[in-house]
Write a structure and sequence with these properties.
heterotetramer; A alpha/beta (about 500); B alpha/beta (about 300); C mainly alpha (about 325); D mainly alpha (about 325); C: about 325 residues; mainly alpha; two-stranded antiparallel ribbon; 14 helices; about 75% helix; D: about 325 residues; ABC transporter involved in vitamin B12 uptake, BtuC; 15 helices; 6 strands; about 5% strand; binds adenosine-5'-triphosphate; binds magnesium ion; transmembrane helix (chain D); cell membrane (chain D); membrane (chain D); ABC transporter permease (chain D)
Chain lengths: ~500, ~300, ~325, ~325
Amino acid sequence: MSGIGKQFPGVRALDGVDLRLLPGEVHALMGENGAGKSTLIKVLTGVHPADSGTIELAGRTVSFAGPLEAQQAGISTVYQEVNLCANLSVAENIFIGREPRRRGRIDWKRMRARAAELLRRLELDIDVSAPLSSYSLALQQMVAIARAIDVEARVLILDEPTSSLDAGEVRQLFHVMRRLKEEGIAILFVSHFLDQIYEISDRMTILRNGRLVGEYLTRELSQVALVSKMIGQELAELERLHGEARTFDRPLVEARELGRTGAVEPFSLTIHEGEVVGLAGLLGSGRTEIARLLFGADHATGGEVAVGGAPAALRTPRAAMAHRIAFCSENRKRDGLIPDLTVRENIVLALQATRGWTRPVPRDQQDELVGRYIKALKISPPNPDHLVRNLSGGNQQKVLLARWLILEPRLLILDEPTRGIDVGAKAEIQRLVTELSDGGMAVLFISAELEEVLRLSHRVGVLRDRRLVADLPNDDTLTTDTLMETIASGGRA
Amino acid sequence: GGSGGGSGSGGGDGSITMGFAQVGAESGWRTANTKSVQESAKAAGITLKFSDAQQKQENQIKAIRSYIQQKVDVIAFSPVVESGWDTVLKEAKNAKIPVILTDRAVDSKDTSLYKTFLGSDFVEEGRKAGKWLVEQYKDAKDPVNIVELQGTTGSAPANDRKAGFQEIIGADPKFKIIASQTGDFTRAKGKEVMEAFLKANPDIDVLYAHNDDMGLGAIEAIEGAGKVPGKDIKIITVDAVHDGMQALADGKINYIVECSPLLGPQLMDLAKKVVKNESVPARVVTEETTFTQEQAKTALPSRKY
Amino acid sequence: MTTAILDRLGARGRSVPAKYVPVLVTAGLFVAMFVAGGIRYEGFATGQVILNVFIDNAFLLVVAVGMTFVILTGGIDLSVGSVVALSTMISASLMAGPGWPPYLVVPLVLLIGSALGLVMGYIVHAFDIQPFIVTLAGMFLARGLCYTIGTDSIPIEDPTFTAFAQTRIDLFADLWISPSVVIAVVVVLVAAYVLHYTRLGRTVYATGGSEQSALLMGLPVGRTKVAVYTISGFCSALGGVLLSFYMLSGYGLHAVGMELDAIAAVVIGGTLLTGGSGFLLGTVLGVLVLGLIQTVLSFEGTLSSWWTKIFIGLLLFVFILLQRLFSARRRT
Amino acid sequence: MKRLLWPLLVLAALLAVNLFFTPSFFSVEMKEGHLYGSLIDILRFGAPLILVSLGMTLVIATGGIDLSVGSVVAISGALACLRISEDGGVFSAVVLALGLCVLLGLWNGFLVAGVGIQPIIATLILMVAGRGLAQLIADGQIITVNSPSYKVIGGGYLLTVPFGILLVLVVLGVTAFLTRRLALGVLIESVGGNAEASRLAGIRSRGIVITVYAFAALCAGVAGLMISSNVSSADGNNAGLWIELDAILAVVIGGTSLAGGRFSLGGTVLGALIIQTLTTTIYSVGVPPETTLLVKALVVAAVCLVQSPKFRDKVFRRAGPRSSPRPAAEEKVRVTA
Ligand SMILES: Nc1ncnc2c1ncn2[C@@H]1O[C@H](COP(=O)(O)OP(=O)(O)OP(=O)(O)O)[C@@H](O)[C@H]1O
Ligand SMILES: Nc1ncnc2c1ncn2[C@@H]1O[C@H](COP(=O)(O)OP(=O)(O)OP(=O)(O)O)[C@@H](O)[C@H]1O
Ligand SMILES: [Mg+2]
Ligand SMILES: [Mg+2]
């Protein structure tokens, strides 16, 4: 690709960007949130027509009218948000468009068998005939990957495929990527996890504000240099935050034998004021379910909750919010944002909901709050009247986070809050969480990134197979390795 | 007994069950028609099975088919349209159930499919309206500007009343229909269309409305435009429902052609005869008249609908 | 009685995937309704009554099948009723006027219907306009074309056509159906096959689930959208042909409001108007439920015009409510 | 406001057509102490449609649809006229009729939000049964009333302006205030944009949906009073027949998506005016009834095409001097040169 330019109304997303992708290499596409990575990928695969520039594939100039043509030309893509059809079964999502057929009709049996086998290669053993909507976001991401790698392709593009995967899945994915690389497939990879970039990529292209910064060999560029090229300035050394075991004496939320049949086994958990409790566990282990129960997003089928010492009925999100509990959900597309509303409206939405429709949040207060968080989280473009649907993935995540931060709740439940967020902003968010908890806010922190959990939490709850198996103080003995061990052994060790 | 009286085997033994498939309840006229049938059935001791087709022919066919299924003694219905009854009427004939048409005819070539047809003649109504108009303006030299408010586009009364009227006035070139538009048989539409007519055509002499309701709506529009209905603009309508007769008596309408909905008593008589296998005339025209303003004043107190 | 059936259904439902529950519940309620009718009215619980529901609604069934395709993609087609009317009108006028033979007229009508659908589908897809307004324009257009052909109803007297229309296919024991029923059943089977066993069918579901995702997954979304409107146009035209068998006439006011009946049948059958979820069997049941309500009304036989409407509303309400309650209970 | 540019152009074009056929079309005169003219007529006869469309806009914004408005129009008129013909109390009749309408709206809302029935079916129930109810109230007849004060609502004048127009302005003002000044609008849009996300944001979506259906029914009720008052009679059979289609069309022309989310009150008013202008144009230009629908189809098609950016794109591209349809290819020349 050379000289690619793309202009959206009011935003210059790409400006003269070049990209070379060689067979048999893993090429990382790097840049801050909103730098233009996803847009570049969409231009490459024909989702958006380019305003300028040319695309060559194996020496021939091409221009795709849509993803279908790109796919036919051998480019297989996993786009940033999970773009699958939740109403179809897992097997169909993997095979739709190229279903195995027998005598002209779709061979459902073979399709299911092949899907199950494909997923088993990614170490997943799930019911492939169940609708995709019944699985968690991380699993859906894996299904999307499975779909992409099964295609006979010359080019594989992965836009933040690992944003909600945990270490095990990432390892599995990398395993597959290496094998494909050896087969001579060109892989374009986007991720905000620098460790992953350094582990898998051979070369990288860095974008900043829609412009090309340069192309580098991964092993020749240090992490610090990479970050400074991405954000255009030196990043102050990442504070070595580390949560520590402390004792808190004022319990805020106490769950006793709370559970929901089919979702999580009954668990007991106490979160104190000012305490950050992390939840660790593998994909589908029930972290999200716990969060949803505490927020009243799902009905508990047993157990009780006390808030501030008094029993509380958290039957609806509204009820939970009345107790000043906030919940930033992991699936921003499905459970979070209203794509047709503006950044401003999305940020003040929860605040407005608590006030009811008769008392609108005054305009100047809106401006103040929204302006503050646009700046603090570096939401770009920094225009509060931009539609959320037109923001980049990471910036959308920031908007969602801002919605709950302005509520200043007593308990903030964060489910994968840093999903798809770039290094700079991630540090900022972590700093915010620490600050808030120092100010007395309780935080329940869920992240697939164990390191992040350890860095922030005072205490870590470990889940396995939908059961809370351990509740560990975050002292010096707790490391990612010991945490992994606990998860693996189911807390018995 | 909810089990229905459909057990009569088609003979003349005691009580008669009649299946009546009504068009719908689209107008006050139709409602009066329904009431008349229901009341006369009760008076004549006939068990009535009634169904409302909501203006849809397919519903009427379904209803007739279900009457055949229920083995009623006689079927009567007011066809929504003229065509398309052969199949179901043949089924009735095969089941040996006699059929009486009311209100509108069917255009089947095979007249053995029904025993008789009882009802008004819409074309004749249009002619009556036209004749009165020709009579009124027989001395006039100037062209006569007519506007027409048609019934629902495509419906039989609209088609026929238009055709009958046209047939008569078409003979004299001084009669000119300068605007013609559908008013859907309703007052609201009649008023709306007339407002537009009044603005687009400054010089209107006569209004011909296919029913009273549209005429009544138009009267409001004419009054709103500062003209006097019945004087500045002469008004002819069809139906003679109570409100229309009132307006006629008040001098706001000039002439009404009656189209009587009270078919019930005649229908029951025919039904009894048909069931007993007595011969009946193939065509029974309802007794209908026309009203001028003076006639309306005398007739008004005794109008039932 | 009814509860027993539903209980049994519920018991079996435990092993049924959740997506089949609404259809099963609808089927159960349909049976319950039939049984209740049989108890209440003499001569109701006979095979022919059920067959009559099919005979009387064959055209609606065909139209609803086309509508199912459209609704599954998340679209809507308001033009169906008018296209049905236009088809009867064209058939009748061509056979009555120039005296064309049916084997020329029928294919021509089917072609015109499909072409209308194709054009609407193309506009929806190519210009990104809401289907509601495109097909509403189509509805006006087709109805308007009817009136330009003529405002009177035109009888069909072609001997072949009438003979076919009046054919009775005798089954066992005095039961009979019309050829239209056979055609409708074939249409249903073919459509079910297409939806379940072909790529087109699966793309229809995917498009309805999430159009954007389907596009990004490299599915031919545009082609599919054009295809479903074409299918719907074809089905409407075929429905129109069946209606001309039924009525033996062409008329501009035929099938007024049939689009609502078709949409209602599809939605009662458990298909979501937002697209992506539903089954053709549901649509068949939806049509049967509407037909059965009509049958119940004519057996009731004593309702005045307005009570008829209120009664239809009530029956519909009770039916939908039970359907909702039972499916909801099954899901939790 | 740029979004409304194209509908505005269509409206202007329609009016221009009228001017061509009827030169006096734009003249507004005073007649017997009130404004008189075709433009006034369009507003006056369009008033009920505008009202119904306003209610429909909010319903559609929540991702729903209300098919029952036509029946509610009929019920409201029938009940009010029945009361007036019985004892003459106009005020109590109006209150009673509107009260019933709100109840019916609550019923719709309850079915949609409480029971979880799909809106189109939930409101279809009332659409069918409601028409029967209206006929039941009126006993299938047309109830004629002779009350000058009732006549005011739809046929009267206040300060030379038709009362109906003022009523529309008031309702429009109140709606705009509730939705745009207060926070109702953004909550409705968020429920329509993403219902689950709204629930998780703590929005009482059930309450909002029910409110919106009640509001739609209230608007329809007022429209029903207007229609029946205009002709001093209630026609349970025909009043408001098919008005739901026109209302939905108005909303869609106005740029609100049937999928829910963003809505535009101004667009809806414009859409309703386009429809009414079209109707009036058809009457005054003298389009024969048989071709009315063809004209309507053409105009609707034109409106939707001209509103589509993709269509304008294609047309302008094609009209432009030999530029290739794919911009990438065009640029290629520049880059390689
Ligand atoms: N459809 C659109 N309409 C308008 N602007 C858009 C659209 N899509 C993307 N943009 C803008 O283009 C810019 C680049 O977005 P892009 O999604 O490519 O960022 P990204 O590098 O993928 O970021 P992230 O890491 O957050 O995913 C952003 O400023 C975004 O707001
Ligand atoms: N009632 C519900 N409605 C919608 N989605 C639900 C519901 N219950 C659970 N889910 C979804 O099912 C998924 C399963 O959650 P689970 O807690 O098992 O995952 P997890 O431990 O958070 O792991 P990961 O998110 O990494 O897969 C959740 O992501 C949640 O979004
Ligand atoms: Mg991105
Ligand atoms: Mg999770």
